[in-house]
Design goal:
The chain has about 325 residues and is α+β, with helices and mostly antiparallel strands. The protein is built from nine helices and 18 strands. The strands form five sheets. The protein has a six-stranded mixed sheet, with helices on one face. The longest helix has 15 residues. It is globular and about 65 Å long.
């Protein structure tokens, strides 16, 4: 059920899904505000600078399979926001792997431009009012809205629904996420063992991906991103950060070749990838003015998150 033109929409989450929703709502003339608990936009579109190196530490690339998303990516390419990295790792499969030209977070920054995005605003509680919704952030600020789009990982959205006395379907609530532990490593040369075009998928029993940020055109300096696979990440996720860092450094050594690590940082993603997906592109409350969206609804890829955000925007616009 769609609601004709709500005057005010709150979007919780400034990742790809939330920003795609907000841009569409704003483009249709809606009054939209985006709230995010992080210090910056992007969610898993995350890029870190270490000295002169630039490293993607969340999503490493994305693919395009639908005409709707392809049109948007073509516009991003024209604007210089994204470029094609390669067409596979090892055996090319014909599907371009796209990356943010200045790192994956640059895509989120491009989408956020001109929007009312408020970072460091943690959504604390939600309640239904006679005409719409009231959301309170952790600083006590009250935000009134006619419609709300929640794009955070499901456990975080569930807590908001619980505060509003709204039940999420059990099959949706039970979807869990794989964790990811990562290592960002600035190295002194390209004499490592990550071959052209600069990516390795599932190369051993520890890592699910190793990416060369210089090879993908993100970093001028030599820099590698290591993502541990779900099983290894789960086994070590509750270790202290220094232990995780040491373990990842030890496991990465086999891929360094003659390159030497100059600086490194560990990273943790609790809600990295949904273990299964919901069949619909979003979940809509019977009121038609509260929508859940994100990568869990249309597939655990960037394209799924983007299309889910657009579906949510269509619901409330």
């Amino acid at each position: 059920m769609s609601v004709p033109g709500p005057a005010r929409t709150l979007v919780v989450g400034a990742g790809l899904s939330g920003l795609m929703a907000a841009r569409r709502i704003a483009g249709l003339g809606g009054d939209v505000t985006v709230l995010d608990k992080g210090r910056g936009v992007g969610g898993r579109l995350a890029t870190r600078r270490i000295g002169g190196a630039v490293l993607d530490h969340g999503a490493q690339f994305f693919t395009v399979r639908t005409d709707d998303f392809a049109a948007r990516v073509a516009a991003w390419e024209r604007d210089g926001v994204v470029h094609e990295w390669c067409r596979g790792f090892g055996d090319a499969d014909g599907h371009p792997r796209w990356v943010g030209t200045a790192g994956m977070t640059s895509i989120a920054k491009h989408l956020a431009a001109g929007l009312d995005v408020r970072c460091s605003h943690l959504a604390f509680s939600l309640e239904r009012t006679g005409a719409g919704w009231r959301l309170v952030t952790d600083d006590g600020a009250v935000h009134e809205a006619d419609a709300v789009v929640l794009t955070a990982p499901l456990p975080q959205s569930f807590s908001l629904l619980f505060s509003a006395g709204i039940e999420m379907p059990d099959a949706l609530r039970s979807i869990d996420y794989d964790r990811t532990l990562g290592l960002l490593a600035v190295v002194d040369s390209d004499r490592h063992l990550v071959p052209a075009p600069g990516g390795l998928q599932d190369p051993d029993g520890v890592f699910s991906f190793i990416g060369d940020n210089r090879a993908k055109g993100v970093s001028d300096a030599h820099a590698l991103t290591f993502h541990a696979n779900p099983a290894w990440s789960l086994a070590h996720f509750d270790d202290d950060l220094d232990t995780i860092h040491s373990l990842l450094l030890a496991e990465s050594a086999r891929w360094l070749g003659d390159a030497r690590i100059l600086e490194s940082q560990p990273k943790k993603w609790r809600f990295a990838t949904p273990r299964r997906t919901w069949p619909d592109p979003c979940w809509v409350h019977p009121s038609g003015t509260l929508v859940l969206a994100g990568d869990v609804f249309a597939g655990p890829r960037m394209e799924g998150a983007a299309l889910s955000g657009l579906a949510a925007a269509r619901t409330v616009s």
